């Protein structure tokens, strides 16, 4: 099965791209192709890696081939329906594992991410400070807060919210 060695799947291409932390556009730029080309090949079942855009993807991403995704013993002895299902399952498992890695990395990135606070200031503007890592607000606007912890404190914030909503409803505004 020579062909199996030099091809991969669209799903594996996509998972590899995500695992590398690249957008479709970024991969397209690195590979010297259009974003549509990335989109096209990621939707394909089989992606031959010998030439064209897929060959460039393979260089950028070190794509796994079908031979990597399907261990040799699974390929021996014909290509029956059971075999095909088996291969599919192995490829899906690999793709899923890559996606789990990617999601973990994204979560870590998010936890480090700092944004502009944007809380309303007394002057009526928006706070321009950087938020605490992984939070939406800066240290002056609750970014360090863990929220209410004691039953007393939880009741106080719940009461404040109830009063706020009641006032909002009483105002008859949308
Ligand atoms: Zn702030």
TrEMBL record:
- Superkingdom of source: Bacteria
Q: Which CDD domains match?
A: HTH_XRE
Q: Which InterPro entries match?
A: Cro/C1-type_HTH, Lambda_DNA-bd_dom_sf, Putative_zinc-bd
Domain HTH cro/C1-type, by residue range, is 13-48
Q: Give the NCBIfam families listed for this entry.
A: HGG_STG
What is the protein's given name? XRE family transcriptional regulator
- Organism per entry: Pseudotabrizicola sediminis
């Amino acid at each position: 099965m020579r062909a199996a060695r030099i091809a991969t799947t669209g799903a594996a291409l996509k998972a590899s791209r995500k695992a590398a932390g690249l957008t479709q556009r970024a991969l397209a730029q690195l590979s010297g192709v259009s974003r549509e080309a990335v989109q096209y090949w990621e939707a394909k079942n089989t992606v031959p890696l010998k030439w064209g855009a897929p060959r460039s993807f393979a260089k950028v991403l070190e794509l796994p081939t079908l031979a990597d995704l399907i261990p040799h013993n699974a390929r021996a002895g014909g290509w029956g329906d059971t075999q095909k299902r088996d291969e599919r399952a192995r490829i899906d498992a690999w793709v899923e594992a890559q996606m789990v890695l990617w999601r973990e990395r994204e979560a870590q990135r998010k936890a480090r991410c700092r944004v502009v606070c944007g809380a309303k200031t007394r002057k009526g503007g928006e706070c321009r400070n950087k938020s605490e890592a992984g939070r939406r607000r800066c240290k002056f606007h609750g970014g360090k807060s863990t929220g209410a912890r004691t039953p007393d404190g939880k009741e106080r914030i719940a009461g404040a919210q109830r009063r706020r909503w009641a006032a909002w409803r009483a105002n008859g505004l949308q």
